[in-house]
Amino acid sequence: MNDILKKIKKEEYKSLGDLRRDIELLCNNCRTFNEDGSILYSDANVIESFFREKLQQELNEHPELAEWEEGSRKENSAGPSTTGTGTPQPTSNGPTRIKLVSTSSNGPSQTNGENSAAQSDDE
Question: Is the full-model pTM beyond 0.70?
Answer without folding.
Answer: no
